[in-house]
Amino acid sequence: MTTLTLSRALNEGLRKALENDPKVLIMGEDVGKLGGVFRVTDGLMKDFGENRVIDTPLAESGIVGTAIGLALRGYRPVCEIQFDGFVYPAVDQIVSQLAKMRYRSLGNVALPVVIRIPCGGGIGAVEHHSESPEVLFTHTAGLRVVACADAADAFTMIQQSVSCDDPVIFFEPKRRYWDKGEVDTAAGVADALPLDRARVALEGADVTLLCYGPLVRTCLESAIAAREDGRSVEVVDLRSLSPLDTEVITASVRKTGRCVVAHEAPVYAGLGAEIAARVTEQCFYCLEAPVLRVGGFHTPYPPSRLEEHYLPDLDRILDAVDRTFGY
Amino acid sequence: MTVESGGATTAALQDHASQAPGTPGTPGEAGGLVQLLTPEGERTDHPGYPLDLPAADIRGLYRDMLLVRRIDTEAISLQRQGELGIWASLLGQEAAQIGSARALAAHDMVFPTYREHGVAWCRGIDPAKLLELYRGVSHGGWAPEEHKFGLYTIVIGSQTLHATGYAMGIQRDGAVGGDGAEAAIVYFGDGATSQGDVNESFVWASVFNAPVVFFCQNNQWAISEPLERQSRIPLYQRARGFGFPGLRVDGNDVLACYAVTKKAMQAAREGQGPTFIEAFTYRMGAHTTTDDPTRYRLASELEMWKLKDPIERVRAYLVRTGQAGPEFFAEVDAEADQLGSRVREACRTMSDPPPLAIFDNVYTEPDAIVAAEREQFAAYLDSFVDGEGEGR
């Protein structure tokens, strides 16, 4: 085991992917010499050359569009979109081309492209640097959408995503890039938890708290705080946002009878709505309370001096947990 | 409290304003319009594009053009008869498509729009596959690598980036220069040149010196919008600003389209980077079968372009030079008749896919969500006890 930051764990995972398959490429803005603005690709151009680690022109649609072409040629490009709020120019290529090519070709074409997107707020950034656009992609069939929450998962999930034959949108919790965790860099990914599975991050008995990405840590802290009130909170890290691992979700809710979903993205028409509907449908007779949601507001992301109010924190999450006991 | 902003420098604006506007439709650099066969069927020479095709090859180009026009005619009729949902006619663009496509090597990769029926023909795509798309039976569904012909792309200009990325892959495979070198060619129209993706692909192709040829069929109309709404300068001159050569070819001249494409592809394969080819042609039909061009263009314009018909001039040339006689033309006409009837038959006997095909090929393996929905829908279909659920 090695102690790594989440950013470094991604770097090590990408390094493994580049070593294991000569068809793997890294491409994006500033990913080469600079090593990425979050240093996720640090040193990779030096070690794997400019043919495999490509500093691209500044155009997100171009990054994804040319990655599709490279994938058609047999490559496995890993694209970096520098910040969540910059992905929108690429949405046409992602939604209309990347997601649909297998379907349109009746299975004749696979596009093993990974699109890494640092996401979420909490770093005091200017606008367009703190968004959570995951449901744009979960709503698009043909894409796999995942979010890592800690260093160990970052290391394995990025490798699993690269070896996946479907396109993967890979969300990285930018305010957790410098969180440290234990990573077994010698371990292969063959025995790791599959990419489309959720994980019980903390067992509990009274209420299920579903989360992913940057809020997993916040939810774990909330669960520990809830113990003071005598409440046993089970925290589930969804990991895969599309497909959803409803098996793990419903097993947990059937056990606890209560469910709260937390995400940074706006609550309205967010992933929590989909989860609430599915949990209600599949766990109806086990529920002691309606499924509650905690998340961002139906507003643009606010200026950073207000983000502490916008982002679900320990108190807002515990408030929702408390409310599930009021029915 | 406010902070003063920098403001715009008026000097720069004046500088722009003082520039004379370009004149669309006027060939400028690169020696003007490349033409090897006049509308009257007279063979001309161009110093940059010497061409000495055997008679059999020219007859072959004529045959290709005539046959794809027949496919097109049949498809329009099938749409009118309710057999196709829609059809995008290539009428008038046969020379641009056949000339360029016949200039490709078998291993070159093609990225088409949705109107490239002539190119598809040259790449060995069964015309029935094209009908499938316009009938609504599939989204195309051919294997791109097998035919070296990508899927029809309906979103305007998206495929230019795919071609450029593919060409970057050719570079990484070491398949530039030497024997077996490869290149990509991408087709798009005049309207597409306004798209961000197309301009981004120019940037990418240029800075990476990618082996890709941009083949723009300027057919003068983007549905109802004339070229003047897309550009103040001739389209081929755009390439210069991106740092690679552009040229304009008579898009109704199959020999010239063949020659310029051959040369541009060879340059790309040899590592000389991209070329922009503007094939100056005309969409003689409607944008698609749902369109009514009489609302936005004059009949006289069409009449003028009919005099430049891409097929007639080759026929005139073949006859005048004695390279083909009545027997050849009768043979090709008979072949076209047979092809037409096969196209009709293929369309009318085409069966719809079973309902559960909706769920196929979304992912490599059906994901949990798709698999569950498929199962639920299958059970729903099976719930019809009178047998209507059969055949799923």
What does this structure look like?
- The complex is a heterodimer of chains A (327) and B (392).
- By secondary structure, chain A is α/β, with parallel strands linked by helices.
- Chain A folds into two domains: 2-183, Thiamin diphosphate (ThDP)-binding fold, Pyr/PP domains (Rossmann fold); 199-323, Rossmann fold (3-Layer(aba) Sandwich).
- Chain A has twelve helices and 14 strands.
- Chain A has helices at 6-20, 44-48, 60-72, 91-98, 101-104, 134-138, 151-163, 215-226, 246-256, 271-282, 307-310, 314-323, and strands spanning 2-5, 24-28, 53-55, 76-80, 114-119, 144-147, 168-173, 180-183, 199-202, 207-211, 233-237, 240-242, 259-266, 292-296.
- Chain A has a seven-stranded mixed β-sheet, sandwiched between helices. In chain A, strands 9-11-10-13-14 form a five-stranded mixed β-sheet, with helices on both faces. Chain A has a two-stranded antiparallel ribbon with strand order 1-8.
- In chain A, helix 10 (271-282) links the parallel strand 13 and strand 14 (292-296).
- In chain A, helix 8 crosses helix 12.
- The longest helix of chain A has 15 residues, at 6-20.
- Chain A is globular.
- Chain B is globular and about 75 Å long.
- Chain B has two domains: 27-348, 3-Layer(aba) Sandwich (Rossmann fold), CATH 3.40.50.970; 354-392, no CATH class.
- With 392 residues, chain B is an alpha/beta fold.
- Chain B starts with 9 loop residues before the first helix and ends in a 10-residue tail after the last helix.
- In chain B, 43% of the residues lie in helices and 8% in strands.
- Chain B has helices spanning 10-17, 55-80, 94-102, 117-122, 127-135, 144-147, 158-172, 196-207, 238-242, 254-269, 299-306, 310-320, 326-348, 368-382, and strands spanning 109-111, 184-189, 212-218, 221-222, 225-226, 246-250, 275-280.
- Classes of the chains: A alpha/beta (327), B alpha/beta (392).
